[in-house]
Amino acid sequence: MAIFLTEASKVIVQGMTGSEGQKHTTRMLAGGTTVVGGVNPRKAGTSVDFTVPGADAPVAVPVFGTVAEAVAATGADVSVIFVPPAHTKAAVLEAVDAGVPLVVIITEGVPVADTAEFFAAAQAKGVRLIGPNCPGLISPGKSNVGIIPADITGPGRIGLVSKSGTLTYQMMYELRDFGFSTAIGIGGDPIIGTTHIDALAAFEADPETAAIVMIGEIGGDAEERAAAFIAEHVTKPVVGYVAGFTAPEGKTMGHAGAIVSGSSGTAQAKKEALEAAGVKVGKTPSETAELMRQVLSA
């Protein structure tokens, strides 16, 4: 079992013909993802041949003029977006209008006003967004959508939700001997589609996820809200890590959402909120992984 993404998922790539799109489509195909099409109005009716390691012959993926055409022809139920920030809003709105149930937005630097607009449109249509400014998600051994390396870990019983891309990869690597049901990088922008709480609820409902790792970072109050949700609704063990314990006060670090004002949004405040909800919080990623080992070995 996995959340949001399974072996049955059919994926289209908006921006597949660009350099980033081609690179990561190759990697997704190599990871077993069923990529059924790309979208580029200027190259509709053509196809792109991907040389996939281990495949006997190049994999030809058709290019469609619109998302609606791609969905009609392939039955795609996931779109992943690799387009520049200026074109991201239009790409997301096109996928939402076409009724794609899951849209994964890798692009960073998307204007917050654009995100607010397409987030509202997605909510109105019941479309799940992941991102923007995220690495995507992977259900190891089943499907991989985005830029997460597919070979870090295998399938297992840990669910992972993280604001940070690189910490997603590190945690997957540190716990690779246990494996993951699904790992999701939700992104660190001020407005994102899928939140910690959304992922926690899905992992709680997934019978094959036994325990959850949640990675947050300084700034905002998402982790505090997640802690309140865990206290009320999550029965599975959760371990956590909050990036930014060594960040100087009042400094904006990395992600656009990591803005601390006063004592709210600090790593210590988030750690205390999570611990009050029964979450074991590590001071480093490695310590967090060790806490999960103890949970799964008990």
C-alpha Rg, in Å? 19 Å
Distance between the termini: 23 Å
Taken together, the total number of domains comes to 2
- Range of strand content: 15-25%
CATH hierarchy class name of the largest domain: Alpha Beta
Alpha-beta content class: alpha/beta
Polypeptide structure, described:
By secondary structure, this protein is α/β, with parallel strands linked by helices. Helix content is 34%, strand content 23%. It contains 9 helices and 14 strands. The strands form 2 sheets. It has a 7-stranded mixed beta sheet, sandwiched between helices. Strands 9-8-11-10-12-13-14 form a 7-stranded mixed beta sheet, sandwiched between helices. Helix 5 (165-174) packs across helix 9, helix 6 runs parallel beside helix 7 (222-233) and helix 7 (222-233) packs parallel to helix 8 (267-276). The two termini are 23 Å apart.
Describe the structure in brief:
This protein has 298 residues and is of the alpha/beta class.
Overview features:
single chain, 298 residues, alpha/beta, Rossmann fold, seven-stranded mixed sheet, 9 helices, globular
